[in-house]
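Quick one: structure for this chain?
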Amino acid sequence: MSGPASIARRGFLVASAAIAGGVAFGIYLVRKTPANPLLDERHDGEAIFNPWVKIDAQGVTLIAPHTDLGQGVRSVQAALIAEELDLDWGQFSVEPGPPSAAYYNTALADEQVPFLSTDTGLTAEALRSAMGGLFKILGLQLTGGSSTVPDSFVKLRQAGAVARETLKLAASRRSGVPVEQLRTEHGSVVLPDGRRLPYTALAQDASAVETVQDVKLRDPSQWRLIGKPMPRLDIVPKSTGTLKFGIDLRLEGMLHAAVKVNPRQGGPMLRFDAKAASAMRGVKKIVAVTNGVAVIADNTWRAFQAVNAVQADWGPAPYPAEQAEHWRAVSESFVPERLDKEWRNDGQVDAALGGTALGAALNAEYRAPYLAHAPMEPLSAVARVTPQRVDIWVGSQVPRFAQEKVARICGVGIEAVHLHNQYCGGSFGHRLEFENITLATEIARQMPGTPIKLTFSREEDFAHDFPRQITMSRARGSVRDGQVEALSLDIASVSVSASQMKRLGQPMPGPDGQIPAGAWNLPYALPHFRVRAYRVPELAPTSSWRSVGASSAGFFADGFLDELIHAAGADPLRERLRLMRDPVARQVLEAVATMSNWQGARPGQGRGRGVAFVESFGVPCAMVVEVTKSEQGIRIDKVWVALDVGKVVDPVNFDNQVKGGVVWGLGHAMNCETTYADGMAQQSNFHAYQGMRLHQCPTIEVQGLEHGAKVRGAGEPPVPPAAPALANAIFAATGVRLREMPFSKQVTFV
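Got it. Here's what it folds into:
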C-alpha cells in the first residue's frame, strides 16, 4: 500500500537524486548554451540570430530540427518561429538543420519520471527539471514520444522573438529611430512614417549588432498563425510528386546497393556463394556486411535481382525460434523474481479481492502481439566515405546518435561525419533505429569516394524491423452494489527500452515505464487499484512503436475495466465518469459523450458502442466506436474521439494526426501481428500484414480540448484507446469479449 511513509520515502529518494544530479552535472553545464551549428557555415552578409533563424539578402531561412516523418512538423515548427518573427506564409524557406546538441529535446523528460502527469508537486517537478537538465547536457536530439510541439512551443517562439527584436535594433541604428517606435509585419520592420525595411535588406546590419536576448513573447490574443488552419509546406510538392524523400535521392556518380542479411535477427551469416550474382548485368561489387552480404550495382532493380541470386547459409537466432516459445516465456514471467516495479497500489487490493463473493469476481488474460512498423517508404540511406569526410543522407529521428554510429564504423571523429536529414515517408518508430545507416556505411567503405545508395526491399524492411514488444496481462477485479470495487492488473512484457539501450551499448537504468504505460496512470478513483509490471527476458529485439507500451497496456486496462463495469450492470460511460477524478480528463469524457450523443452501449438491434479512455504522453484521450453486426461480419461505422493537448497549434494538421492515429490503432487491432517460425518473422509484405482498408474506414469526428496546463503532442495519444473502444463495441453488439489482438482471430471485419 502506498501509505504516507512509502510516499515520503520515494519522494525523498527522488528529490535526492535530482539534487545529486544537479551537483554532479553542475549548474554551469545546465545553464550553458550549446554552440550554434549554423555559425560553422556562415557567409558574409548573413545574420544568424540563433540555431533556428538565419537571414541574408536572398531570403529568410528557418530551421526545423525535429524530423518530418509525414506528420507535418516541419510546417508546425516554422509557424511557431514565423508567429513571433511576423513572417507571412511563403516568406521563408525551411531546412531540417544539422545534428547538434543545440537542438536538445527536454519535453521527453515528462515521460521519464514515475509520477502521474497531473502531479505537480515539488518532488515530481524537481525530477522533471533534473531530467530536462540531463537531456540538455547530453544534447538529446530526438523526434518521438509526441514531443515535437511540447519541445518547440516556447523555444521556437522565443527564437523568432529574438530575431525580431534584433532586426528592430539593426533598423533603429540604420534609421536613427528609437526601437520603441518601430514595429514589424509581413517580413519587414516598419518605421513611424510607414517606410518598410525588409528583413533581407537588414541582414547585413543585423549581422553586426549584438543579438537581443531580453525579449517578450506575444500575447495569445495577437497570434496570427497559432490556432488557425495553415497550409502545410509539403502539400503541393507531395501532391505533384515533386517532393524528394530519402528514397528519391540521386547524386552524381552514385551506385546502388541491396542487402541480404540473416532473417533471424542478430544471427550470423555462416557462408555465402555469389558466383551467379557476380555474373549478372550491372553488378559492380559484392561485399560482406554484418550478418549478411551486399550487392553494389548500377541501379536498384539490378542490385535487388543480384542479391536474390546470392546463396547464403544462416546461423540460428539468438532468441526462441517459434512463436509459441515466445508466449511461453511471457506467461512464465508472472513470478516475484521478474517483478520490475509495482507502479500503483491504492487501497487494499488483496483484501478486497479475497473477500469478494463468488460470482462477483472476474479474472481475465489479455494479449498483445509483436507488431511491425511497416512505413510506406522502406528504409534507405546514401553514404559517401572518404578518409577525411563522411556524408550520410537519410531520414533519422535521432541524427546525433546516427552520426556517432557512423563515426565509430569509419574510425573518424564525429565532426567528420555530416548527416543530411531527409523527408521521411512514415516511421512510427522505425527510424529511431540505425540498421540502414550502419549497413550503408559498411558498404560505402568498400568503395571510397563513391556515393552508395542502399535501399531495403519491402521484404528486407519487414525481416529486419524491430517490432513492438510482445505483452500479456493477467487481471482480477470485483464489483459491489453496481459499482467497480477493485482492479488488479499484472503486466508481463519484454522491455522495449532495454532492447533499444542495448543496441546503443548502454544498460537500462531502472524499471521500464513503458511496460505499464497507459494502465498505471489511469486517473480513476478506484477504491482498490494495483498495477504491477513484470519484465520478460529479451526475446526477439524490439523497438518503440507508435504509442509504445500504452498501445498494449491501455488495451488491457480499459478492456478489463469495461468487463467489470458490465459485470456491475453499470453504464460504461457513466461509470467511467463517476470514477474519474481528474477534471481535465473528465471534460474529455464528457466531450466524447456529447459528440456521440451517448445513450448507452446498445443503441439498436445488431449495433454496439464501446467507449475507452487512455492517457498517454500526458494527453487524456477518450473514444467512442460504433459497430454493426451482420451476417458478413463486423462493420465499423463511426468513431468519435476527444483529447486535450493544452493548445491546438494547427487545427487542420491536428485533425489529420488524430484521424491517422485512430486508423492506425483500429487497423492494427483488427488484423496485424508479427509471428516467428524457425527464428524468422513470417510476415514479409502487406499481403500478410493488412492494416485497415479504405472501404473499412469509418467516419471519424475529432474534438481538441485546451484545458490542460501544458502543451502536448497529438501524434500518439489517439492510438491506445482505439483497440479497447473497438473491442468494447464488438462486445456490446455480439456478446463476444475480445482479449487478444488481432481481433480477426475471432471475428470477421467487412
